[in-house]
Amino acid sequence: MKLSKMKKEELELLSYKDITVMILEEKGPMKTLDLFNKIAKLLDLPESTVEKKIGDYYTTLSTDKNFLLLENGKWDLRSKHTSDKVLKAPDTDDEEEEEEEIEEKVEMDEDEEDYDNQISDEDDFDDGDDDLKDLVVLDEEELELEQ
């Protein structure tokens, strides 16, 4: 049944979601505000109600799986669109990208190894062993005997 032929009392029994489905079936894709204004006009809702409930209405559309937000910002019924379309950049090959990433990682690992190999015993590196050459380690028993 067309919305224009329905009585206001019949429309009031329907949810905004149900009315939206009917509008989208009749009119095709529409923007959020246009949809809600159409509902408000059908139900004779005051402008203040539209301003208060537009956020809730948008949330309903975005969380309900029956509706689909198109690239142009319009809502449509998901049932009118197929999901078997896969968008892919024309000259992009995922396998080549993965191979390049692996090669880059291997090159980075090799660079790290080279850096580690560059450090030699000849470098000026003070390990502090000279300060500890006179250090004597005592057991607890020896410590007690000295006291």
Secondary-structure blueprint of this entry?
Layout: H1 8-12, H2 16-27, H3 32-43, H4 47-63, E1 67-69, E2 75-77, H5 94-118, H6 140-146
Antiparallel strand pairs: 1-2
Question: If you had to describe this structure to a student in words, what would you say it looks like?
Answer:
With 147 residues, the chain is mainly alpha-helical. The chain has a domain at 30-79. 53% of the residues lie in helices and 4% in strands. Helix 2 crosses helix 3 (32-43).
β-sheet strand percentage: under 5%
Cα gyration radius (Å): 37 Å
Total number of helices: 6
Q: Give the helix level as a range of percent.
A: 40-55%
Question: Major β-sheet, in short?
Answer: 2 strands, antiparallel
What does the oligomeric state look like here?
A: single chain
Mean pLDDT: 76
Structural class: mainly alpha
Strand order across the largest sheet: 1-2
Shape: elongated
Q: What's the end-to-end separation, in Å?
A: 105 Å
> How many individual β-strands?
2
Helix/strand order, N-terminal first: HHHHEEHH
The poorly predicted ranges are: none
